[in-house]
Write a structure and sequence with these properties.
With 327 residues, the protein is α/β, with parallel strands linked by helices. It is built from 12 helices and 14 strands. The strands form 2 sheets. The protein has an 8-stranded mixed sheet, sandwiched between helices. It has a 6-stranded mixed sheet with strand order 10-9-11-12-13-14, covered by helices on one side. α4 links the parallel β2 and β3. α4 packs across α12. The two termini are 33 Å apart.
């Protein structure tokens, strides 16, 4: 984790003077002719956002998630606190801090937006002081959102009760989180959101819009199986998508359909293939590949065969963040 802290951009500052250091950073930027807020009002900060980089995070991954937070802040100006925990065997005893900021134009020439980052590297022995330090770094009277990335164990993350109980949303990615992450007894389970579900939004919308043209009795009557084959890169997405389908149509009709995942095809790591089978002559299938962006529907619900070509994609990481946070 020292490597992660060192790999992230920013100016290292004393932990006790983070606020003064942020002000000085903007003053120095303005003095050198760089983009900086003219006042606190110009920052127009909308949210507090804590990005917690778990012990499974690599330096390259940390930089990628940091840039995701920066792109998110282009749309929702944020005060971002990045937490970089250290393993017990590092020998480090002190908390280290960095500050970083960016300004950018919004929808008009006069719409200047800025984001501020505070990056904290801390040993687990200093864990008891972390919550007070984080609270000092956050902007007052703004909602807090907490993103836990690549944490090693749910039970260890549960120790961060200040963040888990105060945050309006707790964001997890079930594709890389521990297996019990979505079923763990979090302090506020209603606040937990899965980024896998969020980034599937375009797929869910496309399937929902196509299937909504048919009445539910036509979709569920005589339905025997719902099968979803998936590429190796979309295992989590397939699991979440199948669960969504089961929630939408699995409980309808007289007979309970079987919902199953098929073994991923070796040749199409980013493909999804959905098929409904019926007791009668009805049929439905959808095939898409998020790498090519192409998908096709085939359906026959007793009114003639329909073929429709469509686009398919996953939300970019910064858009998945906003989807999971606000919707």
């Amino acid at each position: 984790m020292p490597a992660i802290f060192n790999s992230l951009p920013g100016i290292e500052v004393p932990v006790g003077s983070i606020s003064k250091s942020l002000s000085k950073m903007w003053a120095d930027t303005a003095a050198s002719g760089g983009p900086a807020p003219a006042s606190d009002d110009t920052k127009a900060t909308q949210v507090n956002f804590v990005l917690h980089l778990g012990l499974n995070t690599t330096s390259e991954d940390a930089v990628a998630q940091f840039q995701t937070a920066v792109r998110f802040s282009h749309r929702y100006p944020s005060r971002v606190v990045v937490l970089c925990p250290l393993r017990d065997d590092t020998g480090v005893t002190d908390i280290r801090a960095k500050v970083y900021g960016e300004c950018f134009l919004g929808k008009s020439k006069g719409d200047t937006r800025c984001c501020e980052f505070v990056i904290l590297s801390y040993p687990l022995s200093a864990r008891e002081f972390l919550e007070s330090q984080v609270s000092i770094c956050l902007s007052t009277d703004l909602p807090l959102y907490y993103w836990a990335h690549r944490f090693t164990e749910s039970v260890k993350l549960a120790d961060y009760r200040y963040l888990l109980t105060r945050a309006r949303r707790v964001l997890l990615d079930s594709a890389i989180a521990p297996a019990d992450a979505l079923t763990f007894a979090w302090p506020r389970p209603e606040a937990v959101r899965d980024l896998v579900y969020a980034r599937l939004l375009p797929v869910r919308q496309s399937l929902g819009q196509f299937l909504s043209r048919y009445p539910m009795p036509a979709l569920s009557g005589g339905l025997k199986t719902v099968s979803l084959a998936h590429g190796g890169a979309l295992t989590a997405e397939a699991r979440v998508l199948l669960s969504w389908l089961q929630d939408r149509i699995g409980q309808c009709g007289e007979n309970r359909a079987e919902f199953k995942l098929n073994a991923p095809p070796d040749s199409a790591p980013t493909a999804l293939s959905l098929a409904f089978t019926y007791a009668d002559s009805k049929s439905f299938s959808w095939n898409g590949d998020v790498s090519t962006g192409a998908a096709v529907f085939f359906a026959d619900f007793g009114t003639g065969r329909t073929e429709l070509h469509a686009a398919v994609s996953l939300l970019p990481p910064e858009n998945a963040l906003s989807e999971a946070m606000f919707f």
